[in-house]
Write a structure and sequence with these properties.
single chain; 339 residues; alpha/beta; 8-stranded mixed β-sheet; 8 strands; 16% strand
Length: 339
Amino acid sequence: MAATTAKPVKDVPLSYVQLDGLVVMKIIKHCQEESQGGHDPVQGVLLGLVVDSPTGNERILEITNCFSFPRHNDDEDFDEVHYQMEMMRNLRHVNIDHLHVGWYQSTRFGTFINKALLDSQFNYQHSIEESVVIIYDPERTSKGHLSLKAMRLTGDMMSMYRDGDFSPEALSAAGMSFNKMFQEVPIVIRNSHLTNTLLCDLEELAPSTNHNQFLDLATSTHLENYVKLLMGCVDDLSQDANKFFNFQRQFAKQNQTKQQYLAKRQLENNARTARGEAPLGDEDIHKMFKPLQPPARLDSLLISSQINTYTQHINEFASQSFGKLFMAESLQEDTPQTS
């Protein structure tokens, strides 16, 4: 049989992801009901379709529905594939969008970039080119940030992960870095006109009583947690870097020993040739100096990408906190002092 070459991975361009308000509420409801104190992530399936814009220059991923994965123990006999097929079949029977376009997962303090996410998203994009993963963070949402992110793997990362070669030489040849692993697709939340009318009526029936909530300064706990997580990731990255430095030292030491052995062997062969004897063979050199395998750099890419996520969140919280502090200070100065 002739050898088959791997097909190039297509990087499907998506202009944005259009989320129905129903999908957002179902994701939040699922996280509140099944996530135990926000520590255990919850997952589910996204349903919708890919459409072209009226001008035909953009591709839009419309996510119109979703359903959750039920929580189960590892020792239970639960077939996730069979469960998804049954749910999509039932949705099709009631004339609801049933096309699989990705999945969603909850996270806590932005801790979601890991090997499990990479495996799952690679499998999704390998089967469904337009698929995305929606990351929902209830911790940031509770502090005024509706934290929803639509993430995809880049085409270069898909090709590298398919080949499974994360050696330093492969990363350098592909120009891969931590900020080229994932691409974030903008999210647009859409509601029907009837839903918008209902929300306006509800706002008039039950107006907000706390008008100063936007000046809430209680973000120090979140900033402290982000800094602690950032310090842990920096320690992990330092340990991974030490492993690579140890490999470089061992490689340099082995190479030096090999060069000394070859020089000694050359002198001995010259002496044997002068005596009219046959030179020694080089068969035992490869057995004595086996090439060292460099450590895979995938972990360092994931840790670096997670550090980048933490720093972005810290920057957002810090900038907002400074703005609130300056606003609160000006309000206190303008307030007349009562004796």
